[in-house]
Structure formats: C-alpha cells, structure tokens
Amino acid sequence: MFLASTSEYVDRALRGFARDHRDIVTLHTGPTYVRARDPNPNRRVGLVSGGGSGHEPMHVGLVGPGMLDAAVPGKVFASPHNRQVYEASRATAGPDGVLHIVKNYTGDRINFGIAAERLTHDGVPVARVLVDDDVATESAAAATGRRGTGATIIVEKLLGAAADRGAGLADLAALGTEVVARSRSIAVASASHTSHVTGQPGFALAPDEIEYGVGIHGERARRTIPRPPLEELVDRMVGDVVSHLPSGDRALLLVNGLGGTTTIELYNVFGLAEEALDRHGIAVEGSLVGTWTPALDMKGFSITVTMLDAERDGWRTYWDAPAWTATLRK
Amino acid sequence: MFLASTSEYVDRALRGFARDHRDIVTLHTGPTYVRARDPNPNRRVGLVSGGGSGHEPMHVGLVGPGMLDAAVPGKVFASPHNRQVYEASRATAGPDGVLHIVKNYTGDRINFGIAAERLTHDGVPVARVLVDDDVATESAAAATGRRGTGATIIVEKLLGAAADRGAGLADLAALGTEVVARSRSIAVASASHTSHVTGQPGFALAPDEIEYGVGIHGERARRTIPRPPLEELVDRMVGDVVSHLPSGDRALLLVNGLGGTTTIELYNVFGLAEEALDRHGIAVEGSLVGTWTPALDMKGFSITVTMLDAERDGWRTYWDAPAWTATLRK
To answer: What is the mean pLDDT of residues A174-197?
Structure first.
C-alpha cells in the first residue's frame, strides 16, 4: 500500500481530507473527529457516527448538510476511543441531545457506550441506533449478533433528512431502529484486502473460489464456495437478503464495492440485482452504486436492501432529500 | 472480475448506470452513447468526449449540467466507433457546433477524426481538444506523443463551465488547448490491473518494485524501479510533472486512484503532493482526490497538476462553477 512512512498515516489522510473538503468539514484533533462546518440550525439532535478507518467514505465522507454532524474515525479496522466519541458528541449535541449511529462490533459498542454514559452524566440526552444488517452473521448461537455493514449508509441518509426537519431524539432513534430492522446485506469477495500491517493479503483464496458472507474487516465467511456465474451469485445473494426481510413491494438498493471492484462490475451486479428483486415482486425505488463501505482494497461487493411499503413512502422523501457531504451529494 | 456471463457486460453496465442516474442522463443505443437529460440552453456548443471503458467515472460519469453533453464509451480499453461519436455529436451539437475532447490514443484520434469529417460534411462546425498530459510518454522520438490521462477530468470541468456561459467553438477549443498545455500527469503502480479477458494480472511486478510512468491501459512504464518510501516517490513525481509545466505560483491538483487504491492512500499522496508543490512555490487552489481515471482495478495512483497564474484566475471560477453529473457534483 502507498502509505506515508509513519504510523500516523490515518491522521495524515484525515488532514488531507479535511483540507480537500474545507468548505464542508473541519478536523478537530486532540481527540480526533471530523465535524460539519455549517450545522443545520433546524436540527434538534446531533448525529454522530464512527468506527474503524479503511471503510472510506464511511464515515468522514458522509459528514455535512443532510447527513452526519460528526464522524469519529479509529485507526484502520479499529474502534475509535470513547474520548473521541464523547468530545464529538459534546461539540455537536443539539437542544434535544445526540444520536449515536453505531455498527455492531464489540469495540464500537463499548466505546460509544462509555461515551454515552459520560454524556448522560453530563445531562446530555443520548440514544443509540445499532446497525446490524449482515445476514452472513445471522445465528441464534452468535452472542455478538449480526455485523453492521452497508446499511449504515442508508441509515445515515434517512436519519440526516429526518434530523433536518427537526425530529426529536426519540423519534430519530425509533426511525433508525426501524430502518435497520428493514435493511439486510450480504457480501462476497474473490480476493482479500491487503493488510495495512503486513502488506500481504489478509487471507488466500483460489482463483475459482469466493468467500460468501465475508466481513468488511476481512472476517472469513462461514462458507468458501466454488465461484458461480455472476447471474447465479447475485440471485442467491438477493434471495438470502430478501428472506431475512419483512415483506414489501419496493426497496432501496445499495450495491457497494469492497474497494478493488470496478464500476463496470458494480453496474453488472446492480442490473442483475434489480432483475432478481423484480422476480421477488420488489421494485427498486432508490439506488446507490459505488464504493461506499469498502474493506480497504478487497475485491468484492455487497448488496443491501432496505424494504419499503405503502406506510413508508416518507422514507423515499428522506432518501431524495438534499445532502452535501464530501462523497454523497443529492 | 465479477462480470455477467456475456460479452455484453459493458452494455449491461451502461444500462444499469443509466437507470441509476436517470435523473441526469439518458442512454442511447444503436449506436451507444450517454447524453445529458437536460441540456443547458445557454450552451452554443455541445461538449462530447469518449474513449475506452474501464476508466469510469470517465467519461459517462461526467455527463450532465456543467460538464459533458454526451460521452461515447468503447469496449474495455478500446476506442468507441466513429458512428457512436458522429451520432452523439449530431444529437448534442449547439448552434455553434460541437467540441470533441479526445485523449491522445491512436484509435480515439482516428474515430473522432472520421466523425469530425462527417460532421463537417454535414455543415456542423466541429473542433477538437487533444488531451496529452502524461509526461511518462514525453519523447522527441515517439511519433504518437504523450498519452492522455487524468488531465481530461480538469479539461472537461473547465470547458463545461465555459460552455455554460455561452462561449463559442473557437474560444472553447483555444481554452481547452491552453488547459492541456498547462496540465501534466504521471502515474505509478504497485500491481497490475486484472485483465478483463484472462482474469489474470496484465503484468507482473515484484513486491518491492513499482512501475514509474504506467499507462491507464496497463502500458508498462519505461522504468520499473525499486519502491521508494512514499515521501520520496511523491516528491519525485511532483518534480517530474512541474519540470514539464510552464512556471506559475498556484495550481489545480488531481490525485487520482488507478482503481484498487484506497482513500487513505490517496489522501496520504495528496498531503505529500501539496507539501512537494509548496517546496516548488506552488499553492494548491483547487483539488480533486479520488478514483477519477482508473485502469480497471490497478493498484496505483496518478498526480495531475494544472498550472495557474494571475492571468488565469478565471480558471478558478470555472473550476468552482456548479456541476451535476453522476460522479462530480459541485
């Protein structure tokens, strides 16, 4: 990997990012977080997310009008420190407090949790939306539950729009929880990411194999499978995702590259996923195709479906609402 | 690679792209081109670019208000057919004709050239801006001249803004030629792209080597060099680029990923490139960091500098002008 000859390459990247997008964000250091330059005065609640680095644009590329008030990056694939979360939350809390959007990983849960306790002690209202969308980790036996992956992008977009309209903390938390409940994902990879520590692949795969259900930190899937034609693979992935969702007849569709996947590949997947959803009687009403939640430079992709129905037409409005971040602009 | 089991995977990707961004573009087939849905009525000249696929978002992701009126994609790494160029030009020519923005490759030159002859025969005014920014191919002996790479993004952004203000064909051609003359690039890779034909790497590199001066179709560099620390590498690249540019004290800087390069890496490069330019007395006044002109999934990056000076403050205005394409939004 092309990284500066120092352990501070994440901080260097953040400084570069903040300069490149200085019209949208400011970088706070000691502790580190990225904050929206011009907070929306209509917001009653600050939206704060975060997690390990290596998944960019998530989350720092999603800070700005219409989405996050602050993002708290950890080192590569490592949780941010709770002091970062606490300070970012204090800086961006609205009159109705702060909402934490947390992907379901132990380190993130612990650090956001400690920060939430301190905020509560300070008298700052705080609530949490836990994103756990990855059906590859669905198991009654797994105490940690499903991992949080691509659905985070959708949650942050919808909650950002709701927060812009002045929604309160309890309403935002309820909305976020419902969006998560109606969102599921699955990811596959044909080649590992490059380890930022060793410079070597994080795991080995034969050319004719794929990881079915890979995680965004290189967590191996429960199944390494012979590589099927893409049509079959996408059909299976969509079937798996839909089988874990409540029924509905329309959806938001995120086709996400894991880092080393080309736009041509992603749009092949998108077209096949649309067709597969159509066979399930589900129309795609909003979509996002690109590298949104990568695992460094992994070759692979994920499919996330958020199920809509007649009662949730408002989500479409939130999806289409304006946003102006470094990466997602509507 | 994850491609549909058909030779039509580029067309499939284009159909998916056009559906995903149906608010911005329309896809024409027979022959294939992507067109802006809502042309700017102020424009007197249509802007048409194109080239091989595998470099997305270039060019289809740059169609829309503020940038291109149409983009003409070929197959992967192959020129579009002249009939595509001709039809796209006929469809988008303004009262003052059409400007072709062409990267300097033989196939592209020939096909845009044939289309231009047909347009001239039809009485449609046509001019061409040839983008040839890659200093790795600078050689008095090379009859084909410098390759066209990342500077194309900058040319298309500046010309789009000028066209929106009603500039005529000759003025746009002159501006484009001057932007090219003041833009130079260099690219490096630590690993090849994956061949879309064989599924294998296009070339082999040892872990401690890089291609210094690689092309965006996997053209080997004249030099494979031992891999230096990133600080040294970026310093050398910036020095090479600046030595091929007219003098100036401010610049636009594009740090472009070649496909399999992470955001963290690109922002490490960006920070180091800013520092290197500062040592040359050049301030970065506008920047773009991301995967803008990839070579499929190659691991590497390019640096493009467009030199500004007091006489070219208007270029800053063009750079900052609004644009609303699938990928570049300002």
So the answer is: 96
CA distance B20 to chain A (A): 6
- Taking CA–CA distances from A274, the nearest residue in chain B reads B16
Asked if ipTM goes beyond 0.90, one says yes
Which pLDDT score is estimated for A263?
98
Which residues of chain B make contact with A59, given a CB cutoff of 8 A? none
Q: Do A2 and B261 touch (CB under 8 A)?
A: yes
**Interchain contact A9–B (C-beta under 8 A):** yes
- Of A83-92, A137-146, A292-301, the one with minimum mean pLDDT is A137-146
Domain span including residue A114: 10-181
Q: Which residues of A touch B233 (CB under 8 A)?
A: 2
Å from A9 to nearest chain B CA?
7
Average pLDDT value over all residues in chain A: 96
Local confidence band at B101 (pLDDT 50, 70, 90 cut-offs): very high
Domain count, chain B: 2
**Catalytic residue annotation of B:** 55, 217
Per-residue pLDDT for A227 more than 70? Answer: yes
Cβ-contact B72, B49 below 8 angstroms = yes
On the question of pLDDT at A1 being above 80, the answer is yes
The pLDDT, as a whole number, for residue B140 is 61
Q: Does A273 touch chain B (CB under 8 A)?
A: no
Q: Does A19 touch chain B (CB under 8 A)?
A: yes
What are the DSSP calls for A181-245, one per residue?
HTEEEEEEEEEPPBPTTTSSBSS---TTEEEET--TT-PPPSEEEEPPPHHHHHHHHHHHHHHTS
Is the same domain home to B24 and B139? yes
Question: Could you say which of A181, A197, A224 is where a domain stops?
Answer: A181
Q: Which of B133, B152, B181 is the last residue of a domain?
A: B181
Cβ atoms within 10 Å, residue A136:
23
* B74 Cβ neighbours under 8 A, 6+ residues apart: B50, B51, B52, B53, B80, B81, B84, B107
Burial tier of B41 (Cβ tally within 10 Å: 0-12, 13-18, 19+): exposed
Beta-carbon separation of A264 and B56 below 8 A: yes
B75 and B192 fall within a common domain: no
Do A51 and A117 have their domain in common? yes
**A-B C-beta contacts closer than 8 Å:** 155
**Banded pLDDT at B73 (limits 50, 70, 90):** very high
- Residue of chain B with shortest Cα separation from A1: B265
Which residues in chain B are contacts of A272 at CB distance < 8 A?
A: 4
The pLDDT of residue A248: 93
**Separation CA A239–CA A221 (nearest Å):** 18
Prior bond to B57 cis, omega within 30? yes
Residue B141 is predicted with a pLDDT of 63
Q: In what order do the strands lie in the sheet with B283-290?
A: B223-226, B209-212, B183-191, B299-308, B250-257, B283-290
Residues B268-304: tens digit of each pLDDT? 999 999 999 999 999 999 999 999 999 999 999 999 9
Known catalytic residue: A217?
Answer: yes
* Interchain contact, A268 vs B9, CB within 8 Å: yes
b/e code A175-209 from CB counts within 10 Å (16+ = b): bbbebbebbbbbbbbbbbbbbbeeeeebbebeeee
Residue A140 has pLDDT above 70, yes or no: no
Q: Are residues A113 and A196 in the same domain?
A: no
Say what the pLDDT of residue B142 is.
66
